[in-house]
């Protein structure tokens, strides 16, 4: 039985990569300037326009993917006799994973022999994207459905996310960080460094003085935790901070002989909560 891997737009994969590998996408939605948009990886609303609007005070909102949207996508491939693997945005950051499980049950009522695997990646942005990248590579090299599922399950908690934000007000406003956790303001140019824990939650880890120091700290955390960098593709995502992304990429290349670095913008759904100026790095290490 042929296998199809479905991703969602919170993986923040580059549009050209998704198009080249013909990856089916679940499109998260966001409300921006009074209209609802499907996240289409920057094709309709450019990343620059979106983040500039946020800098000017626009406060976009997001909503989880409903069960019917998932059911429609799953049915498309199940009706073609294909096995489905869906790699989902962290359940700690969205209720969408639970809706995907509901959708799977809906499809199984109609197609009792349907083969649908829904994986809570406990990842976000290009951390989720890298899991998709490796899974697609395995599929294209002829790996079985079981081999792909096992690899993802064994490695998802080894996918490290380290990031810094310009202002925690966005995470706090979106409910992705509690008021008590959002302990850092913009006073004295103090910048937070956060990561994603074993449950897929955003956790503040330390505070440093100044933007450049926060960026260097991300790479220091990579030095502490990365395993076999020469065998890895690593990733950087950013909220309209291309120069900083290139700066961090340069630091990574100066310290590690990685196979490649994927750099892409953080899409509007995650970006609505993290804000402009966010910068994140992703790599495989020991378990979180």
Describe the fold and architecture.
- The two termini are 34 Å apart.
- The chain has ten helices and 13 strands.
- Strand 6, helix 4 and strand 7 form a beta-alpha-beta unit.
- The strands form three sheets. A six-stranded mixed β-sheet has the order 10-9-8-13-11-12, sandwiched between helices.
- The chain is 38% helix and 24% strand.
- It has 288 residues and is an alpha/beta fold.
Output the keywords.
288 residues, alpha/beta, Rossmann fold, 2 domains, 38% helix
* Main sheet summary: 6 strands, mixed
User: Which regions have little confidence, pLDDT < 50, spanning 5+ residues?
Assistant: none
- Helices and strands, in N-to-C order? EHEEEHEHEHEHHEHEEHEHEHE
**DSSP strand count:** 13
Number of alpha- plus pi-helical segments: 10
> Cα-atom Rg, whole angstroms?
18 Å
Strand percentage lies at: 15-25%
CATH topology of the largest domain: Rossmann fold
Give the structural class.
alpha/beta
**Terminal CA distance:** 34 Å
Coarse shape: globular
In oligomeric terms, what are we looking at? single chain
> Structurally, how many domains make up the residues?
2
Strand order of the largest sheet: 10-9-8-13-11-12
CATH class of the largest domain: Alpha Beta
**Helix content estimate:** 25-40%
CATH architecture of the largest domain: 3-Layer(aba) Sandwich
Indicate the mean pLDDT.
Answer: 94
Protein name: EDD domain protein, DegV family
Function: May bind long-chain fatty acids, such as palmitate, and may play a role in lipid transport or fatty acid metabolism.
GO molecular function: lipid binding
Keywords: Lipid-binding
